[in-house]
## 1
Amino acid sequence: MENELILRQQEGSQLAALSNSPEQYCKALNPRRIEDVFLSHEPLIGTIIKNLGETKARAAVVYLLADALEFFNAAETMSDVQVAMTVDLIIEEYAYMKLDDIKLCLKNAMKMKYGKIYNRIDGQVIMSWFKEYNKERCSTADNQSYNEHKAHNAEEAKPTNGLFYEEYRAELESRAKDGDEEAIKALELSNSISEMLCQRKFVKQKENLDKFYTSDSKRNF
């Protein structure tokens, strides 16, 4: 509950900063990897729309997109109308993303991660960037989820009480004396396993002794 309150407070402060100065807010974003985006406390685009309205959300995405267009400085670039339409498509299609998702996607495009632009940028090119970025984002999320699942299973597999074997046996014996049927069964199983291991150990020792005496008698002969 306390963590949820902290997260809400962090999200609230981010929304306030975005509302006061969308341009400065967007310039301050600096994600380097998708994992950075997952760990950030930036609000989702859908959350921005819900709390600040579509105009603020559009303005933020426009600032980010404008930086990318300026970087490429393509001969065939986009008109204001085309930019506005593309921004609306991004917001509509990827409302579950954060603004640092958008910035990272555009940074990746600047690094030519999604291919060359051949001196032309339009809405179709930009939406293809987001499609590729979203594939990578989903793959990273799946890997994270799988690794967390493995870590959880490994933690679950550990003895919950942290007892050593001797302590475990002592606890079983104490519970068995009190008539705990599960403890009695567990103790019987433990005894049978111990007995089997002892028998195997005895057989192995006997085999070793036989080999020793056999070889020793041959040497004496």
## 2
Amino acid sequence: MRALANWATPWGFPVCYLGWAFLFWLPLVVSGEPVWSFPAVVFLIVGGMSPLLAGLSLLWLTQGEAGYRDLRRRLLETGRIGVRWGVVLVVFYPAFNLTGAAVALALGVSSSPLEVISPQRLFDPAALALLVLVAVVVPVIEEIGLRGYWFDQLQARWRAFTSSLVLGVVWAAWHVPLVFMTGYYEGTTFQPELWWWLPSIVLTAIVGTWLYNNTHRSVLALIAFHFAGNLTGETMGFSAELYPAVHLGTALVAAAVVVIWSPGSLRGWDTPRPVVDHARPTRRR
């Protein structure tokens, strides 16, 4: 099994990641059953575990205990992040949303550019549970597989920018069935459409790489960034009328990151990307 997992690198992960999710999610899409009803919610949860299951399984097969020790360090060591990048993680999304809202007000695009969470929702057990799921649980499950396992393999082969695009496209594909599930976004402030949402996910992956590479491959940093984005979106997200124009801001940020920090590493023009030995491609005979 280990030989097969190594041979399939780096494409074994997306096959398992997408395959497991779609195995449980496509029946939900076809059936049209409300996704938060029983037993549909079981299919949703089991399928949604795919990044964690694929990442941890393949990590064990390819790297064993050493891989788990490395992942544990990247999940727990706050020193990798530092004060400067810690501030970026905390303020990025609130600052982005407030700036976007200010621009919308200044241009007269919207008189209510943000949808601030209501007190009633905070005291609704079901809505609060969904908020915790979206803001806390989902980032942990996704980032352990995507950044904790897969991204190093991509970055060992291609530049940081190219690797981000590959990860972003696969990550976006994983989200597609969610849009077609009955009631999945019910009770949230976000109602996406694929034509603008999927490109925004790819752009977000570029920004994520910028943070990942500048925090010494910290998975904790990416979980915090993902958490901050989801929490900000659910507590002071953009109003529906600002989509998809608001993603022009994401495109501008991603472009600035690539131009200023270099597409090769997203760490600086004279700074190499972090590539670990176990992720380097090997010659096949």
## 3
Amino acid sequence: MRPITFWGLCVAGGAVILAVACSAPQQTAAPAAAKPAETAAAEFRTTATIKDIMDSVVDPSADYMWESVATIVTKKGTEERRPRTDMEWKEVRRRAIAMIEGTNLLIMDGRLVAKPGEKSENPGIELGPEEIKAVIDADRASFIKFAHGLHDAGVKALAAIDKKDADALSDAGETIDEACEQCHLKYWYPLNTPDVLKKGSVRKTS
């Protein structure tokens, strides 16, 4: 038998290495990271009108918060109304959230002021829907600013609620009332507001 030399071992070893390399699965380049799918633009469906949102969401929620902290004086004495239990505070909080988010609903593009043909409930005192729309369209930036003012007043109330601070909630209620009145004076019943009449932006009534 012919003795195996050092070089023979090297050649044999190389053949083994080559065979293993050829039989090993080929490594492929890692695929490029998939691009995130493009988010489709949100399609808002503004079924309710501004009047609907006010009647169904904003006004009832604000009323609930105002009435949750009050001093009631009757023949029987004085009642200091306050949320006292966790459930009472939780309900007030729900109403605050509804009012806060309701302000965003009011300013969505495409939202009608009222249903077509709907009339003012108090003609001669309040503007009609078409007149309100004209005032909003003439200065939409101010309408959005008023809505944001009510939103911020609601956030102030929410902070008081989370602290269960009835006095702070009462103060926030006054801020909410002021925000509501400022908006209403411009868009709902400005007929007797001197500044509005002076500018002649709405008609005078006899």
